[in-house]
Amino acid sequence: MSKFRKDDGKELPPISTASLPDIVFMLLFFFMVSTTMREVTLKVKMRIPEATELSKLEKKSLVSYIYIGEPLPTYQKTFGKAPRIQLNDQFATVDEVQDFVIAEREARDEAEQPFMVTSLKIDENTRMSIVGDVKQELRKSAALNINYSSRKKAER
Questions:
Q1: Which of 32, 62, 71, 124 has the largest CB neighbor count within 10 A?
Q2: Domain that holds residue 108
Q3: Residue 151, H or E segment
Q4: pLDDT > 60? residue 1
């Protein structure tokens, strides 16, 4: 038989924290790489209409978005309930659409300019009169590649 010896005098060694900064920085880099920042804060209600035939855009970096819809309740006291145009983070009028498109075009590389797409994100309850006015301004600024954003129709 073997003898069992009781080690009352020994304590557990402390946990090494030498690798803790490495773990923290790995987590930090992971979240920095995997997180996407929202580019535009929506100020209009946005319920995009459903469609059956959709195609996905190849290069989203070449897309400029124009949002059209009823202002959110926090902005309705100032701007009313009529549908408004939002360019980037600000409300705009139809006359400012042409300047917006020109500024977006100048911000791109010259080789990418012919491939630019203007995507209209329009609330499904918005009347077509304001959309027609925006399309006329896009024609004046030679932004002829227009896309209507929609969501896929749910299968029932």
A1: 71
A2: 57-151
A3: strand 151-152
A4: no
Q: Classify residue 97: in a domain, yes or no.
A: yes
Assigned domain for 22 exists: no
Residue whose tokens read 């027609």:
132
Q: What is the pLDDT of residue 6?
A: 66
Taking the CA of residue 28 as centre, how many other CA atoms within 13 Å lie in the half-sphere pointing to its CB?
6
Say how far apart CA 44 and CA 123 lie, in whole Å. 9
Percent pLDDT > 90 in the chain is 63
How many other C-beta atoms lie within 10 A of the C-beta of residue 112?
13
Residue of 60, 56, 55, 54 lying closest to 39 (CA atoms): 60
Q: Is 67 a member of any domain?
A: yes
- pLDDT tier at 131 (50, 70, 90 boundaries)? very high
CA distances from 138 to 40, 51, 111, 117, 145 (A): 21, 23, 20, 11, 9
- Compute the radius of gyration of the chain from its Cα atoms: 27
Quote the number of domains for the chain.
1
**Residue 98 within any structural domain of the chain:** yes
